[in-house]
Design brief:
By secondary structure, the chain is mainly beta. It has a single domain, classed as Thiol Ester Dehydrase, Chain A, CATH 3.10.129. The protein is about 10% helix and about 40% strand. The chain has 1 helix and 7 strands; from the N terminus they run E-E-E-H-E-E-E-E. It has a 7-stranded antiparallel sheet with strand order 1-2-3-5-6-7-4, with helices on one face. Strand 5 and strand 6 form a beta hairpin. The longest helix is centred in the middle third of the chain and has 17 residues. The N terminus is likely disordered.
Amino acid sequence: MNKVNMRSDGNSCFVCGQSNEFGLQILFRIEAGICRAEYTPSDKFCGYDGVTHGGILFSLLDDVMANWLFLQGERAYTGKCEIRFHEPAPTGQRILLEGELLSRKGPLARMTGRAYLADSGQLVAETKATFMIIPD
């Protein structure tokens, strides 16, 4: 089952905000307990020529984890995040994103995120993070 929830308080987000004309405007969804999305970075988001900037990859992974919570009605801030880059992500190639909950204790959620090249399945980068849930 796909779960997509359009909240109105994230419309300006650089990664997923549909109202942000300068943002990436990525649509996230929940499938079988995993937050998923895909994105094809253009050359305007490169570091070295032909390679996606690491900051863009970090932003994508941060958001796929945050959106696991956001799409279920919870807002959270990233408290701590570690990223491990495995391979360069060429611009112009579709990247698949996955994020999921590892554990939850009170207002803290431990999350993980992964980015793969769609064509080969090669793991590009992965993250582990702690998010602080914002009370209603």
